[in-house]
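Please annotate this fold before class:
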Amino acid sequence: MKISPQQQQQPATTPTARDRLSYQVALSSYQSRRGLDKIAWVTWLLVLGMSLLWMLTAYKAALAAGAHSWQTILTHVWANAISIQPADDASLTQVLIDYGAKYNPAIVQQHEYWRFLTPMFLHANLLHLGLNMLNLLMLGIFLERLLGHTRYLFLYIITGIISVLASFYFAPEEVSLGASGAIFGLVGVFSIFVITHRRAFPFGGLFSILYLIVIIGINLGVGFMIANVDNYAHFGGLISGFLLGLWFSPLYRSSSPYTVVDRHSLTKRWPLALLTILGTLILTVISLYLVGTKV
């Protein structure tokens, strides 16, 4: 990637200069893209797809609860928009299971392994969807520009699967779903990006790192205080995001006075990406074996 003389005002020979250059290039790299490639279309497609899927499951849940006209269906959806009503819990849960929620008996006994992927696209009600989509838009658009479309989607899917695996192993009796595990994975990736570029921030990035710690702590704390929040999935996504961030978050280094390369791009780290996929599959097999022995 070419850089301007303003970005390379002095040789990046010190760790601080290298971090500042990498940080500046990472933040501005999307500006050199053209057309659709400049838009965070993966994030927007994820938001649109999950919103449409919620509409479908909400409609099916209303039908299962006995609603038939559009008026009664909308009344049912609105009644459960903020908090699931006890009378509707069973029918909604069954619909969500039918559409791919994490449900251990179906995974272990019926071998429905696709359930390690599908839960990250499902949501229980409008509040659940709205909070997750707001977080995804706020963080996802920025990260997609930072990472590029393919790397961003790769990290979203892998951390999302690992979050489901964490719930599968540590919360076997819970029906689990939602994009929050994958979103925590993105938070982990961004945290590592900030930490590896800490010298580009005032005071060595101390306040930025403390801010991230507070935000992560608040979000995890909310999960402990509110019922039916799967913090195991959150921890799984966050930890895998930290690890994958070390390998795949942008790290630009000079290859000539006015050219830099991203050493962590997928084109350069595709063998590590394949190993990550293989490692995720191995982790899935191990989890299946360990949980299967308890059934």
User: Anything to note?
Assistant: The chain has eleven helices and two strands.
